[in-house]
Amino acid sequence: MHQPTHDYLVHLEWNHGRIGQLSSPELETFIECATPPEFPHGVPGIWSPEHLFTAAVSSCLMTTFLAVAEHSNLKFEKFSCKASGLLAKVDGKWMMTEIHLYPELILSPEEKEERGLKVLEKSEKACLISHSIKSEIKLFPKVLHYALN
């Protein structure tokens, strides 16, 4: 049986210097991107490929978590995730070697922390972007209960 495939169209147009603009015919917004400031002629304050790579892993965790949580009937109040991507030289070539994910999940009062943690871990293992890259993914979850103030 033939499995369906999906295409995601992206267009990049160079503006000037080390800055370009990402767009997609499928989306209304664009993203300016540039060489990061750590490299020659890099530009501070603009999304770099390294930021976008890290964001792809983090946003995949979120979207996968939302699907797994819905399927599991996990009740939660808030999900957020900080992420850091480590760029290092390996065998003389630069690569993103690790992505550290710091999801924070605030559960509804009736939920158990262990269940929230299990759903987060299952979500990280199911993330299709994580499956598609060489970088090591490390999860540092924090699960709390919603506190009434």
Automatic annotation (TrEMBL):
SUPFAM superfamilies: OsmC-like (SSF82784). InterPro entries: KH_dom-like_a/b (IPR015946), OsmC/Ohr_fam (IPR003718), OsmC/Ohrsf (IPR036102), OsmC_Ohr_Peroxiredoxin (IPR052707). Signal peptide: none annotated. It comes from the Bacteria. It holds the Pfam family OsmC. PANTHER family: OSMC_OHR FAMILY PROTEIN, OSMOTICALLY INDUCIBLE FAMILY PROTEIN. This is OsmC family protein.
